[in-house]
Design a protein that fits this description.
7 strands, 7-stranded parallel beta sheet
Length: about 325
């Protein structure tokens, strides 16, 4: 069902997996043309190309660039080619910033505290503590979330720690690079009269997770930038909002140390008893792209099934 004008386009930065790819599928199903910028190794294209073919099967136009979206040279080249593809009638209705490239090093060495629950249980029932911990880890990966404190503690990299360059690269990639794309589209006159810009954040914008400091800083920068874009580009018909997704099992999450424990804790806390899925986020971005959502601007919208307000576990 086509719900967008024939010349409506979505430019998605990070469009080959996770939230970006899910949003591409959702918007394509409703008639929006797609321009996807992604950065993947050649071997990953075996997985990605069938996804792109499915998008083309929706009857929309698809342009892709396998290149670094944080590079100014890439941005200028993509926008030049996109302007040619749009022609006189096409315009960018949606810009989604879904770049997941951040440094996950620690700030300082982890001070380890012994986990006593598993060892105490092992002694009480007369089994080897290491075997119990291994079994708990296996069951945790299979979905037995209540065992997240019984298994072995997460391992964190300890050879090097975050420095200022790590922060700068992460904040640029996952935060402030949104400005260059916004201004590039605006300066070329490529935005639709009623355009929507979206960024992605997480609960780590307020909570401290080990190994997440640089990404957390990037999310905070993105949210601040999004508010300013909403205020300063709003008079030109451009709305900007940030989606705060719940814990989602994406490649980006899997790279975070202790991600199995994060997933277990989220499922135990979430009223819906499951993780957020990329399609949940894609559905909301689609809704916020409709004409009826034109008066939502400068907000952080939580898409997590109530995870952020739940103080209970099962």
């Amino acid at each position: 069902m086509r719900e967008f004008q024939q010349g409506a386009w979505a430019l998605i930065l990070g469009g080959s997996s996770g939230f970006g790819l899910a949003t591409a599928h959702k918007l394509a199903q409703h008639g929006m043309n797609l321009a996807l910028v992604h950065r993947d190794r050649r071997g990953a294209m075996k997985r990605i190309e069938p996804e792109f073919e499915e998008l083309r099967g929706c009857g929309v136009e698809l342009r892709t660039w396998n290149s670094d979206a944080t590079s100014a040279e890439t941005r200028e080249a993509v926008l030049d080619e996109l302007a040619e593809a749009l022609g006189d009638s096409g315009r960018v209705r949606v810009l989604l910033h879904s770049i997941a490239f951040g440094n996950l090093k620690l700030l300082a060495p982890v001070k380890k505290y012994p986990r006593t629950a598993g060892a105490a249980l092992a002694r009480r029932i007369g089994v080897d503590p290491d075997k119990l911990a291994l079994a708990a880890d296996e069951l945790l990966r299979e979905g037995e979330d209540g065992l997240h404190t019984v298994g072995r503690a997460p391992e964190y990299p300890s050879r090097s720690y975050l420095d200022e360059d790590d922060f700068a690269r992460t904040i640029l990639s996952m935060g402030t690079s949104l400005l260059g794309w916004t201004r590039g589209l605006f300066d070329r006159g490529l935005f639709a009269d009623d355009a929507r810009i979206f960024g992605l954040t997480s609960e780590g914008n307020e909570l401290a997770w080990k190994g997440y400091a640089a990404v957390s800083a990037a999310k905070a920068a993105l949210e601040a930038l999004a508010r300013s874009i909403a205020a300063e580009f709003g008079p030109h018909g451009i709305r900007c909002n940030v989606i705060q997704a719940g814990i989602t099992d994406t490649p980006a999450l899997q790279a975070i140390p202790g991600s199995d424990q994060l997933k277990a804790q989220a499922r135990l806390r979430n009223p819906g008893r499951r993780l957020t899925e990329p399609s949940d986020v894609a559905n909301v971005i689609y809704l916020l792209s409709l004409d009826e959502a034109a008066w939502i601007n400068g907000d952080v919208i939580r898409v997590d099934g109530g995870e952020h307000i739940s103080g209970v576990t099962r």
